Amino acid sequence: MAFDPSIWYSQIPGKPDAVQGTAAFQPSEGSINEISARRFDGLDDEMTFTAQNLSAMTMMVVFSRDFSDDYVLLGDGATNKLEIDSGESTITLTINGTDYVFSFVVISSDIAQLVTITRTSGGTTRCYLDGVESSTGAIVNTDTFTISKIGTNTDENLLGAIGEIKVWAKHLPDAVRIQKELDLIAKWEVSSPAPGAPTVPIRDL
Questions:
Q1: How is residue 166 annotated by DSSP?
Q2: 23: three-class secondary structure by DSSP
């Protein structure tokens, strides 16, 4: 399918497409490892979709950022966001105005990376980078997490590219999550998975 800057079609039937009707705010076509991706300019590019209010959830985002700075991948323009922090070691998940910071060995710039967020129905929330869980471990929050924007959260606009976003309104079993991460790592040629990343495919249950 040809690249259309005004719409990003959902791969899941019945789930909303992301749109941007104003040409000046449309991400351009870029690439991550020579695969077509949405490139955001760090100023005012964004895409929006019908708000998704999530309790239990699994989210995966393939991204590449240009520099080590604060960049929002997903959010609602208000009190919820998934942010890659400035520096090279933390990711912040903001749920209903409360920040939860997940630490990693390194979060690089200019390469493909995969961030995964999982949350059970009981609120146990974990963050993974390239298949490896944060050393922070699990946090617990049962508030609704709402997303409706890609590449911005009013400020902290993404300067970089997003290749793929997957969101499930449920907590995927570990075996399923790992296989889906492996599929994305292979597809987008995530070249520097963090130490300990899964390497043996597990059948998708």
A1: E
A2: helix
Distance (Å) of CA 14 to CA 9, 10, 50, 53, 144: 11, 8, 11, 15, 21
Length of the chain: 205
Is the pTM value of this prediction over 0.90? yes
164's enclosing H/E stretch is strand 159-168
How many angstroms separate the CA atoms of 116 and 130, rounded? 8
DSSP of 75-96, one letter per residue?
E-SSS-EEEEPSSSSEEEEEET
Q: Pick the closest to residue 64 from 164, 187, 156, 133 (CA basis).
A: 164
45-71 burial, b at 16+ Cβ within 10 Å, e below that, comes to bbbbbeebebbbbbbbbbbbbeebbbb
Instruction: Output the pLDDT for position 17.
Output: 96
| Cα separation, 111 vs 1, whole angstroms | 25
**Which pLDDT band holds residue 14 (cuts at 50, 70, 90)?**
confident
pLDDT value for 146: 97
Of 72-86, 137-151, 182-196, highest mean pLDDT = 137-151
Q: What CA–CA distances, in Å, run from 28 to 5, 42, 143, 145?
A: 6, 12, 34, 28
Contact in structure between 6 and 20 (CB atoms under 8 Å): yes
Q: What angle do CA 60, 77, 103 make, to 5 degrees?
A: 45
